[in-house]
Structure formats: structure tokens, C-alpha cells
């Protein structure tokens, strides 16, 4: 039997931190942010489509996507963010689905889908259970500014480009509270693994 866990949260709420722990237990992770990078790597049709839409100004000198530059454009403008997602969304979905089919065959147990836009993009439909890593908005803002060296305006724009974390929390089957210490958060993950008999 395979359990597909849809893991999500807000930007910088701690998804990667939690997903790393599942990885430590040996469970496979399908990471939407990693796939989002692969589908626009140099030489891909994804990058060609982005360059056609946003002009070659979004490329670095060696022809790769300048992620900082594109991020500054799209997180400040909802219309352009929607245009970006219209290109990357289907490419990400195709690759995630491919990996999921393959892992269901080869890795019984638990498969973790780490997807920032799990609910916004309806990925909960392919998950058996959903888990939201929750922090309060002020803590999220502070961690985001610190991790990505963003000013308050840029960090708030990024948070506003996703559903509010409280809305995601309401939809989740399991809520992991990541407002306290990492140890306290890990305890909740271990409890989940124990409850579902996934400790190994
Ligand atoms: C705009 C880009 C180039 C900025 O790159 P950068 O390296 O600075 O950020 P990174 O990719 O690590 O994303 C950081 C976080 O931003 C948030 N985020 C990314 N894309 C989006 C989006 N389309 N809408 C809302 N939030 C987003 C996520 O929480 C993500 O974890 C990049 O985020 C991107 O290509 N986004 C589109 C792909 C996408 O939709 N990804 C989400 C997968 S579900
Ligand atoms: N409990 C915690 N206490 C203090 N700092 C934390 C805690 N959990 C995570 N962090 C820090 O907060 C930041 C965001 O965590 P992480 O990168 O795991 O979030 P994320 O949800 O994966 O982000 P993104 O959506 O941008 O990919 C990181 O710098 C991480 O080290």
C-alpha cells in the first residue's frame, strides 16, 4: 500500500525543513520547487517560452534563467505571475505525475509531494492526505525576510501571491505547528509517522 502525502504551507513556513525529515526516514520526496527549476533549465522548451513572453532580459549572461530578476517582476505583478504559472504549471504537473507513477511502482509506503501551491493548483486531488506546515504571519514574514534577504515590501508581496496560510490550515488533514523550536516541530512529524505506522 502506498500513502501519498501532499505537503504544503506558506512561503518560508517550513515545508523544506519538514520534507527533509521525511527524506531522512528514507521516504521519497517529489519536490515541486526542484521540478520548477528543471522545466526551465537551459535548452528546455519551458525556458524558450518564458524568454518569448518576458523577453531575453530575464536571462543571465550565460543564457540561464535569472531567477532573482524574474521573481522581482512576477511577485510585484499578479498578471505577470499568472502568465508565468500558465507556462510552468502544466510542465510541473506533467513531470510530477510521471514521477508519482514511477514511485508508486517502486516505492511502497509513503510518497511525499512537496508542493507550495498544493491547494491553489488542486494537487490535493492526487494526495491521500494533506499536511500543512503552519506558522503565524508575523513569524513567516520574519523568516522569509531573513532567509531570502528581502525587504518587508518584497516579502509581503511574495506572501500575498499565495492563499493565506490560515485558509490552507483549514483545508488540511494534518496541521504541523512550526511556530516553536525545530525540535517541537520534529516531534509532531514523528508522531504522525508513528500514528500511520511509518516509523522505520
Ligand atoms: C519566480 C521564480 C523564478 C523565482 O525563483 P526563486 O528561485 O527566487 O524562488 P523559488 O523557485 O525557490 O520559490 C520560492 C517560493 O516562492 C513561492 N512561489 C514560487 N512560484 C510561485 C507562484 N507561481 N505563485 C505563488 N508562489 C510561488 C513558493 O512558495 C516557493 O517555495 C520561481 O519561483 C518560479 O519559476 N516560479 C514559477 C513556478 C511555480 O509555479 N512554482 C510553484 C510550484 S507549485
Ligand atoms: N521552527 C523553526 N524555528 C526557526 N527557524 C525555522 C524553523 N523552521 C524553519 N525555519 C527557518 O525558516 C526558513 C524557512 O524554512 P523552509 O526553507 O523550510 O521553508 P519552506 O516552506 O520550504 O519555504 P519555500 O516555500 O520558500 O520553499 C529557513 O531559513 C529555516 O531555516
From TrEMBL:
Pathway: Cofactor biosynthesis; coenzyme A biosynthesis; CoA from (R)-pantothenate: step 5/5
PROSITE patterns in the cross-refs: DPCK
Keyword Acetylation: no
The keyword Lipoprotein belongs to this UniProt entry's keyword annotation: no
Gene3D superfamilies associated with the record: P-loop containing nucleotide triphosphate hydrolases
Family: Belongs to the CoaE family.
Role: Catalyzes the phosphorylation of the 3'-hydroxyl group of dephosphocoenzyme A to form coenzyme A.
Protein name: Dephospho-CoA kinase
Organism this protein belongs to: Loigolactobacillus zhaoyuanensis
Gene from which this protein is expressed: coaE
